[in-house]
Amino acid sequence: MYILGIESSCDETAAAIVEDGKHLISNVISTSVKEQALYGGVVPEIASRRHAESISGVVREALEKANCTMDDIDAVAVTYAPGLIGALLVGVNFAKGLAFASGTPLVPVHHLRGHIASNYISSDVKPPFLCLVVSGGHSHIVAVNDYTDFEIIGKTRDDAAGEALDKAGRTMGLAYPGGISIDKISKQGDENAFKFPHPKVTGSKYDFSFSGLKTSVINTVHNAKQKGEEINVADLAASFQKSVVDCLIQNLEKAGVDKNFKKIVIAGGVSANSKLRREAEKLCKKHNWQLYLPELKYCGDNAAMIASQGYYEFISGVTADESLNAYATMAIDKPYEKQN
Ligand code: KG4
Ligand code: ZN
Predict the structure, then answer these.
(1) What is the pTM of this model?
(2) Ligand 1 in contact with 132 (CB < 6 A)?
């Protein structure tokens, strides 16, 4: 079964064709990240405009590269939530038009479910498993009981891990996206040079909090500036990255042990982080758990992951009609509900 996936929730306009949720046929991504970098972060208006300009070309290219026409496509899967609302609407409206004009079923896909599905393309992993989903907008520990059955075990109370890394990177004067810059520069730094507080979260022992950590790094930079002291940015970046990764890994370990999972999956943009990947490997070795990491090319936003999850949603009976809307927020465990 061929699924055409469409993704436009942030600054990547993407289309891909995936067979049976697993085999990549084509994968096209156009990104406005360079333009967004000029502003130090994603400007939603610019993202929407670039999506509107590029989406038809990106989808056409995905079909051409796969040597397909719409007649070969069994369903059109599109990210409908969560994300920047104007950006999401471009993809949703395009997918609606394409699906109804060609008489192809339309399948709504949750962006984070998509991130998790990037692992179905990268490996042979099958649910049930425990997944750490870490992106620019979300940090979750999710029990993936089945392809369309999700249970939130823990989540961030404030900033997402990627958001904290991006903001810290900006404060350190590093290029956007800060997460990537911090990963790069940390390789030359001493991760024990600075000590950051380990945030305590009351309530769920699996929840995260990154805003205190972020404020702490911002204060460190500002205090040094006021005193006219030089800060070793590589040391600061490495220490901050270590704190963020430690928080993620500690909660993942607690959840894995308590819930008795033997398979651990990491997903989302931050899953590209080299320190996180190393520490996840160590953790899984320690407990004799099987670890699955997406290939680096599928860590960031792409449409292959949307096509993959779209396949599982479609075979479980999830389709949308012309009432499909886009939503800036949406819980990962919430099933899609038709509007009319
Ligand atoms: O999943 P994603 O591409 O978009 C969202 O759904 O948000 O995640 C983007 C986030 C950004 O915060 C970016 O800095 C972070 O992923 N990121 C990284 C790395 N590559 C991307 N963070 C740490 N290390 C990386 N190598
Ligand atoms: Zn994402």
Answers:
(1) 0.97
(2) no
